[in-house]
């Protein structure tokens, strides 16, 4: 996937924070070697990854065996136990209704949830710097900097997001600190370089109001030592940490991101889609490869269309800014039961969803406060 570099071109992982409270001026960056293929103004550049061809042709799938798949049916006993478990987990729900309700109807249906995960890698480069401590510098004199997609980095486990920073080989240059102009220190803003500030106790009057004796806090001088610089009148430069020089270098920022496309078949239900998206289902189909093809001829046409749409959206959004490393698409069956029950002369409804029988209550009759959520 990535070409091996020579020992000279190995990348160094950056564990330090190279950010500074004050960025170098634009004219300084312009004086640094241009690295036209790496950077084109603005201090940062996104690079297009090499295109990857699909590794295999699509294979026809027979859905006949999938159609025979069934999930366990929710009975009245299971429906009542699920509601009782839900009610007992809520501090302000009474259990009397769950114990005494009369179930009138169980409307069972099975939804299909399609998911597409696309694991991609993107790379950007940016100028950054750190204090120069007379350490060895890997500059242009050691060779030409490799192109960013030629730099080999360790890829994390598939579908696990991460961001890492590396120093681009042979891109380091030592320059005078742009903030303190090579002095290592700068004038204190608290005392303006004098080392003392007006005494707050006597307001610089040298003695307290209506008291003839001198102010004990400043010994009658009217001024006190500046606490910001400890009386020195200057502070160590925060940018170069007093080292007077900075080493500028190109930093490679590699981001691994997992993009998710999700679709749940619509059967005109009132259970929130976000709950169905998190529900536990039973796996029906799984396809994982460096590139997956759209599902065709699935019994539910909306699932086939969702697969086509998801793959097209991910390809379009990532084509110009990232390289796709792996894709995974799944179809899961999500059981859903709409329970209609009668309690004290009124009809209510709740939903049981997922293979672990989670409950969503629309309007529970014994709720005593509004302090907890019904989701």
Automatic annotation (TrEMBL):
<dbReference type="InterPro" id="IPR052789">
    <property type="entry name" value="SSUH2_homolog"/>
</dbReference>
<dbReference type="GO" id="GO:0005634">
    <property type="term" value="C:nucleus"/>
</dbReference>
<protein>
    <submittedName>
        <fullName>Ssu-2 homolog</fullName>
    </submittedName>
</protein>
<dbReference type="InterPro" id="IPR036410">
    <property type="entry name" value="HSP_DnaJ_Cys-rich_dom_sf"/>
</dbReference>
<dbReference type="GO" id="GO:0042476">
    <property type="term" value="P:odontogenesis"/>
</dbReference>
<dbReference type="GO" id="GO:0031072">
    <property type="term" value="F:heat shock protein binding"/>
</dbReference>
<dbReference type="GO" id="GO:0005737">
    <property type="term" value="C:cytoplasm"/>
</dbReference>
<dbReference type="InterPro" id="IPR001305">
    <property type="entry name" value="HSP_DnaJ_Cys-rich_dom"/>
</dbReference>
<dbReference type="GO" id="GO:0051082">
    <property type="term" value="F:unfolded protein binding"/>
</dbReference>
């Amino acid at each position: 996937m990535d070409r091996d570099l020579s020992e000279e071109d190995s990348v160094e992982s950056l564990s330090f924070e190279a950010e500074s409270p004050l960025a170098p001026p634009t004219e300084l960056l312009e004086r640094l070697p241009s690295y036209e293929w790496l950077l084109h103004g603005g201090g940062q550049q996104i690079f297009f990854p090499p295109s990857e061809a699909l590794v295999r042709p699509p294979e026809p799938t027979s859905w006949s065996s999938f159609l025979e798949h069934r999930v366990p049916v929710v009975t009245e006993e299971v429906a009542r136990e699920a509601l009782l478990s839900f009610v007992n987990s809520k501090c302000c729900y009474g259990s009397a209704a769950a114990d005494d309700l009369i179930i009138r109807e169980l409307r069972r249906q099975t939804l299909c949830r399609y998911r597409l995960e696309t694991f991609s890698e993107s790379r950007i480069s940016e100028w950054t710097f750190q204090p120069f401590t007379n350490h060895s510098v890997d500059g242009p004199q050691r060779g030409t900097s490799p192109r960013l997609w030629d730099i080999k980095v360790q890829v994390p486990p598939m579908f696990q997001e991460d961001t890492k920073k590396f120093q681009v080989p042979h891109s380091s240059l030592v320059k005078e600190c742009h903030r303190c102009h090579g002095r290592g220190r700068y004038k204190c803003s608290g005392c303006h370089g004098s080392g003392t500030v007006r005494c707050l106790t006597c307001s610089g009057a040298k003695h307290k109001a209506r008291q003839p004796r001198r102010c004990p806090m400043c010994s009658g001088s009217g001024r006190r030592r500046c606490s910001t610089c400890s009386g020195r009148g200057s502070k160590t430069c925060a940018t170069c940490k007093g080292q007077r020089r900075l080493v500028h270098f190109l930093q490679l920022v590699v981001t691994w991101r997992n993009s998710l496309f999700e679709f749940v078949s619509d059967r005109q239900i009132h259970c929130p889609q976000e709950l169905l998206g998190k529900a536990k289902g039973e796996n029906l189909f799984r396809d994982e490869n460096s590139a997956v093809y759209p599902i065709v001829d699935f019994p539910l046409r909306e699932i086939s269309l969702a697969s086509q749409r998801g793959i097209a959206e991910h390809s379009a959004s990532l084509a110009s800014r990232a390289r796709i490393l792996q894709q995974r698409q799944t179809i899961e069956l999500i059981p859903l039961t709409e329970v209609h029950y009668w309690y004290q002369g009124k009809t209510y409804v709740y939903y049981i969803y997922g293979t672990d029988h989670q409950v969503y209550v629309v309007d529970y009759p014994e709720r005593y406060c509004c302090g907890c959520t019904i989701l």
